[in-house]
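Sharing a chain and its predicted structure for anyone who wants a worked example. Both blocks are below, sequence first, tokens second.
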Amino acid sequence: MLQTFDPRNKDILININGVLAPRDEARISPFDSLVQGGDGVWEGLRLYDGKVFRLNAHLDRLESSAKAMGFSEIPTKEVLIEAIQATLRANKMTDGVHIRLTLSRGEKITSGMDPRLNQSGCTLIVLAEWKSPVYDSTGIRLMTSSVRRFPPDCLDPNIHHNNLAQSILAKIQANTAGVDDALMLDVHGFVAETNATHVFLIEKGVVSTPTTQACPEGVTRDTVLQICRDNKIPFHVGNLSLTQVYRADEMFCTGTMGEITPVIEVDGRSIGDGEIGLLSQHIGRLFQEEVKTAGDPLLS
């Protein structure tokens, strides 16, 4: 599965520290912490009809990650929202847009790892693109990666940071295997997530998902769990093994980029009957209803 280029994105303006520049001219310094060590945190947002789905939850997570990384002079929510608004208005965007919001530790006075070299505050990047959900709505295929997710005592997954080497290595394995994405396990062999999304299984009417011990807290993940609570759909959060994956009746992934995506095959084995399950479809419809009501208005 390879994303295609949307020609509408050819001339988009990208916001870097308040300066809007065409994509071919937008640059950050080679001394920026993102370049020096992937030292940044980020969020993916989706714009629906002038509203960003669960904007405050995303901004809370960005701030939490930046605090955990010890960033100084973290922009306020008001500053972040104004930067997003300015970017969307400059690009005349109101719907069907994905926003990647990135905050780095900022520019260093000389190259090096030491955060004390950062003396000019954070770098804020707002990249808004015309982008539909990236996964095939008819279902995707996964393979189990040999790359494991870190536990909290190695690198806490609840810091939503820019060091994506694990995910990239797992995605390379998926590409080589000719499938859509990679299923990733934790160091104990339990399911963590995919290289890009959270994972849900359905067996005998019960919806299950892994804990966040080896995967980040997810806004779409939390929304699905709330949907289950509100609609009296039985659910469970805990350790899940590959055995549970292989015997599941249904399976789906969640994330801002793909929303609710059915999984029809793992490691060459069909999930259920290899078709999109009824409960997955039901949860998907409930999620789309939630999108209409849980958006934070950004554009008048």
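Comments welcome. The longest helix spans residues 278-293.
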